[in-house]
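Lecture notes, continued. The same structure-token format from the folding unit now serves as the input rather than the output. Read the line below as a description of shape only.
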């Protein structure tokens, strides 16, 4: 009898050490040759159900993530098409006819820059080009393929160029106008370049234009292999000497890290501007 109990104990210990993953049959003998058969079986049903549920949850989570992305993309498109500040046409005549209604920055062409495949070519490396002054000595468009290699390495010198419409004065202890660079100094180092300067209000220059210039500069500084196609066009109405605003376009090459197309009004709160010659008075 003692031998039988020891045998059963060892058998149970062995079964538990093996995880009870199968059915085992054990035979124990006694002095009377009595055969005792004990069966042990582990039930995996709950674990299998849990495993299946976990797989299903992962599939559902993946579908939800995909749907969230689609919803976000659709919401972005909807904002573009319903944005009251969106200007669908690239016509400079249409931009020139826009009147300021309280929003200093508006999207053009649903914020998509108008660059062709050739415009985005980098085979020539970084470059910059400034349009000639028109018949009234007004500044025209400035174009560039920007790269950190164009950024200035010397201290900026004072400006002395007076663009068309330059009738500067202080209003509330602040200068009304800045000599606004079409392509910011921090991007190309161009300073007293007649073809790159216009008369712009303090608000046009900083914060509005500077916000986009800083975005581009940050991207260029991140890697010497980063390029941005960039264009800034002053918008004049008819023969006026003071620009109504500027059209700014930026597109990073091989990515959308930089991607914008905006029109910025040349206005200043509390001031009425005479765009025909640049004179002004407090409103």
């Amino acid at each position: 009898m003692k031998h039988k109990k020891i045998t059963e104990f060892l058998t149970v210990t062995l079964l538990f050490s093996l995880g009870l993953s199968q059915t085992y049959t054990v035979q124990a003998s006694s002095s009377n040759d009595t055969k005792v058969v004990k069966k042990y079986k582990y039930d995996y049903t709950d674990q299998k159900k849990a495993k299946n549920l976990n797989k299903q949850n992962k599939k559902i989570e993946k579908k939800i993530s995909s749907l969230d992305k689609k919803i976000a993309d659709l919401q972005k498109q909807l904002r573009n098409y319903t944005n009251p500040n969106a200007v669908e046409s690239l016509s400079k005549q249409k931009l020139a006819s826009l009147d300021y209604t309280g929003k200093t920055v508006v999207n053009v062409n649903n914020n998509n820059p108008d660059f062709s495949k050739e415009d985005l070519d980098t085979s020539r490396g970084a470059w910059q080009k400034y349009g000639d002054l028109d018949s009234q000595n007004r500044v025209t468009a400035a174009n560039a393929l920007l790269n950190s290699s164009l950024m200035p390495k010397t201290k900026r010198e004072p400006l002395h160029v007076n663009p068309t419409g330059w009738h500067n004065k202080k209003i509330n202890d602040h200068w009304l106008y800045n000599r606004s660079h079409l392509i910011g100094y921090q991007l190309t180092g161009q300073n007293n370049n007649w073809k790159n300067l216009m008369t712009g209000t303090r608000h046009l220059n900083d914060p509005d234009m500077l916000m986009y210039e800083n975005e581009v500069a940050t991207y260029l500084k991140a890697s010497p292999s980063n390029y941005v196609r960039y264009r800034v066009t002053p918008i004049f109405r008819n023969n006026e000497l003071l620009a109504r605003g500027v059209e700014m376009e930026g597109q990073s090459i091989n990515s959308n890290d930089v991607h914008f197309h905006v029109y910025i009004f040349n206005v200043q709160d509390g001031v009425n501007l005479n765009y025909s010659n640049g004179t002004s008075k407090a409103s």
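Point for the exam: The helical segments are 2-17, 45-82, 92-97, 185-188, 202-222.
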